[in-house]
Automatic annotation (TrEMBL):
PANTHER family to which the protein is assigned, alphabetical: FLAVIN REDUCTASE, FMN REDUCTASE (NADH) RUTF
Protein keywords: Oxidoreductase
Entry keyword Oxidoreductase: yes
Protein name stated in the entry: Flavin reductase
Domain Flavin reductase like: 11-155
Alphabetized Pfam families for the sequence: Flavin_Reduct (PF01613)
Transmembrane segments: none
Length: 163
């Protein structure tokens, strides 16, 4: 078995986008910061979100059955920190400008991308739930992306190519 610290140190060397994942519905409005988000298939357009099952509102996401993956811009690292903090849900949503698309899950209006989704399946693996989410709407903005690498934030621009 691989040591947990070795695993975390290795994962820190993978560059990832930073997202604020939100929900709203019968179980209330909630959100958290996530880096474990990726595409699954394009037919139907589907992505997965990994969420710690020990988060106090994990079951609320399942009950609501919808979520929005708000991919953050390079200017929004403060929102990443806010949605990873111990602030309650109401306090978190006082930061940023919020709207909705099709499902009613909170859309950060100036996010780089908003993926509006129905949660189709949940598989629990270890400490996390893997939420399989069918995308029903998308909103895009033009800006630089916020990425996370080696335990710190970085700006990624579409203007630079490495060959």
């Amino acid at each position: 078995m691989v040591d947990v610290t070795d695993f975390k140190d290795a994962m820190a060397k993978l560059t990832t986008a930073v997202h604020v994942v939100t929900t709203d519905g019968v179980a209330g409005r909630h959100g958290f910061t996530a880096s474990a988000v990726c595409s699954v298939t394009d037919s139907p357009p589907t992505l997965l979100v990994c969420m710690n099952t020990k988060i106090g509102f994990y079951d609320n996401f399942r009950k609501n059955g919808v979520l929005m993956v708000n991919t953050l811009t390079a200017k929004q690292s403060n929102l990443s920190n806010i949605f990873a903090s111990r602030l309650n849900s109401d306090e978190r949503f006082t930061h940023g400008s919020w709207g909705v698309l099709t499902t009613g899950a909170p859309l950060l209006t100036d996010a780089l991308i908003g993926f509006d989704c129905h949660i189709k399946e949940v598989k629990e693996v270890g400490t996390h739930g893997v939420l399989i989410c069918e995308i029903v709407d998308i909103k895009r903005n033009d800006d630089d992306a916020l990425t996370y690498f080696n335990r710190s934030y970085h700006r990624t621009s579409g203007d630079t190519a490495i060959i």
